[in-house]
Amino acid sequence: MKKIFKRLVAAGLGVTIVAGSLAGCSSGSGTGETQAASQAETTAAESASGDSGQAAETEELVAEEGAEIEIAYWEGSQSDKDAWDWAIAKLKEDHPEITITTQIYPSDTYRDQLDTRIAGDDWPDVMRYTYQRLGKFKDSNTMLDLTPYIGQESLDDLIPAFREACMYDGKLVAMPHHTDVIALFYNKKMLADAGIEVPQSLEEAWTVEEFTDIARQLKEANGLDYAMGGIWENSSGYRWLPFLYMYGGSLMNEDQTAITMDTPEALEAIKLYESWRQEDLINNVAFTATPACNMMFVANQLAFAFAGSWHCSYMEENMPDGWGVTYMPQKDGKTGSDMGGNGLFAYAGTEYPKAAAIVIEYLTNAENMKGFCEAGNFIPVRQSLMEEGLTFSSFQEEMELFMEIAGTIDEKMASDETSVPFQELNIALNEAMDPMIVDGSSTAEEVAQNCQTTMTEILESY
User: Low complexity compositional bias: what residue ranges (predicted)?
Assistant: First the structure.
C-alpha cells in the first residue's frame, strides 16, 4: 500500500493548474447574486493574510442559529448510494444543530437538472461535482471561499493534484472528496473457455496489440457483434483520454498555451479507435450517446468493458460471479487511467456559510473520507489514508487493484483535465469523435484536425 501511496503523491506533485476565466452559469438576479458578491468580498478579506490565504488563521466553525443546508448529489451505483446513505446519516447524528436535507438526482441528468435550478437562482447550499467540471463555476464568484474554514493540517494531507484542482485565484473553493479510476472488466467464462490468462500485475498488462488480438479472438468465438465498449459515453469523452496520453499525445503543450491534437502521437491514438471500429471490435455508441457499455457487458454482449471502480456492485448484481477486472492495456510500457472522482463546494450566496463549511469539512475529513470510500468502493485523496490502506465493505481484492491503477494516472493528463477551459475542450472532443464512431463518416485524420481547429478557437477565447 505504501508503494501505491508514493506513486500517487509523485504524480500529484507534477500537476499544475492554469488559472483563467470560464463563463459561469447564470445565477439569475435578485438576492442570491447580491449575497454571492457580499460573501465573496467577506471571505476574500478574511483570507487576505498568509500565503495565498492558506496560512490565515482558521475561524472557529460554529453553525449559524437555525441553519438549514441542502446537499445536492447524484448516486451513480448501489455502492455510491450506500456511501452517501452512510455519510448523511452520520452527518445528521453528529451535527443535530444543522437541519440537513438532500436532493438526489440520477447520474445522467444531474448536471442538466442542477443547471436548470441555477438558471432560476435556486442554488443548493452544497454540491457534488466532478473535478473536470468545477471550472465552469470558478470565474463567477459563485463558489464559497473555504479558505478561512479548513485547517492547514487538513489541506497538507490532501494529495496535491486534487487539492490544486479545488483552488482558484489563491482561494480554496472546493474540497476533494474521493477519486476513482477505470480499468478493464472482463467476462470470466469467455476468457476461460478460450484459455486466456488474465494479467496479474501492472508489468504483465497486455499490450494494446495483444489486447486487440484477444478481442478479435473472443468476438469470433462467441459470435459477438462487438468485443468491447467504454464508459466514455454520455459526453464523458475525457474517460477515453488515458489512451491519448498512453500513446504520448496530449490535449495541450506543456504550458497549456497551444492545442496539440495534430501531433503524430495524438493521431496514432485516434487511429487505434478507428481501427477498432472498422473491425467492429468496439461498439458504435457515440461519446455523446446514452450509456450502453455496462448494460451490454452484463448481458454477455461484450467480452470487455472499460468501466469504473464504482461499478463493481452493478456488475455483481447483474452478472453474479461472471466478471473480473484487470489492468488497462499498455503501449510501449506505458499505461494509464481516468482521473475520476468528485469534489464538494458551497454556493457563495448561501444563507449559512459556516454551516455549509462545516458540512464540507465533515464529509471530507480523514475519518469520514475513509468511511465513505470503504462503503462506496472509492479511492481516497488523502495521503494518510493511501498510506494506511482501506478495508472495503466489499470487493477488497478488486479495490486494491484499482488503488494500484490510480498510481498510473498521467500527470500531464491530470493537469490538462483540471485546467479552466477543459469542459469546453471535452465537448469539442466528444463532438469530433462521434462521426468516426457511429458511421465512419469522419476519418481519424479529420477527427484530429477538427479537434485541433475547434479546441484552438476555444483556448484562444480565454
Answer: 26-49
- What secondary structure letter does DSSP report for 202? G
Q: What is the pTM of this model?
A: 0.76
The rounded radius of gyration (Å) of the Cα atoms in the chain is: 22
Quote the CA–CA distance of 293 and 232 in Å, as a whole number: 9
What are 435's three cell numbers? 462521426
To the nearest 10 degrees (0 to 180), the angle between helices 422-438 and 444-460 is 160
Q: Is 371 exposed, middle or buried (0-12, 13-18, 19+ CB in 10 A)?
A: middle
Query: 70-86 pLDDT, tens per residue?
Result: 999 999 888 889 999 99
Q: β-strands 171-172, 323-326: how paired?
A: unpaired
Do the Cβ atoms of 324 and 186 come closer than 8 Å? yes
Per-residue pLDDT tens for 165-187? 888 888 999 999 999 999 999 99
Q: How far is CA 144 from CA 36, 55, 79, 115, 346, in A?
A: 8, 18, 29, 18, 5
The confidence band for 281, taking pLDDT boundaries of 50, 70 and 90, is very high
User: DSSP state, 186?
Assistant: E
205 CB-near residues (< 8 Å, 6+ apart): 199, 326, 327, 328, 329, 330, 335
Report the number of secondary-structure helices (H) and strands (E) in the chain.
Answer: 20, 11
Reduced to 3 states, what is the DSSP secondary structure of residue 328?
A: coil
Domains of the chain and CATH, by start = 2-180+340-406 (3.40.190.10), 182-338+421-460 (3.40.190.10)
| pLDDT at 40 > cutoff 60 | no
Measure the CA angle with vertex 191, ends 189 and 192; round to 5°.
Answer: 60
pLDDT interval class at 58 (50, 70, 90): low
The string of DSSP codes covering 393-452 is SS-HHHHHHHHHHHTT--HHHHHHHTSTTHHHHHHHHHHHHHHHHHTS-S-HHHHHHHHH
Q: Mind listing the pLDDT tens digit for each residue in 225-256?
A: 999 999 999 999 999 999 999 999 999 999 99
Residue 263's φ and ψ, nearest 5 degrees, are: -80, 160
Residue burial 153-166, b: 16+ Cβ < 10 Å; e: rest: ebbebbbbbbbbbb
pLDDT at site 387:
87
Task: Give me the DSSP letters along 139-184.
Answer: TTT-B---TTTS-HHHHHHB-HHHHHHTEETTEE--EEEEB--EEE
200, 250, 392 from 384: Cα distances, Å: 27, 31, 16
User: Which residues face 127 on adjacent strands?
Assistant: 72, 345
Q: With a cut of 50, say whether residue 122 has pLDDT above it.
A: yes
Q: How many alpha carbons fall within 13 Å on the CB side of residue 389?
A: 10
Provide the 3-class DSSP secondary structure of residue 211.
helix
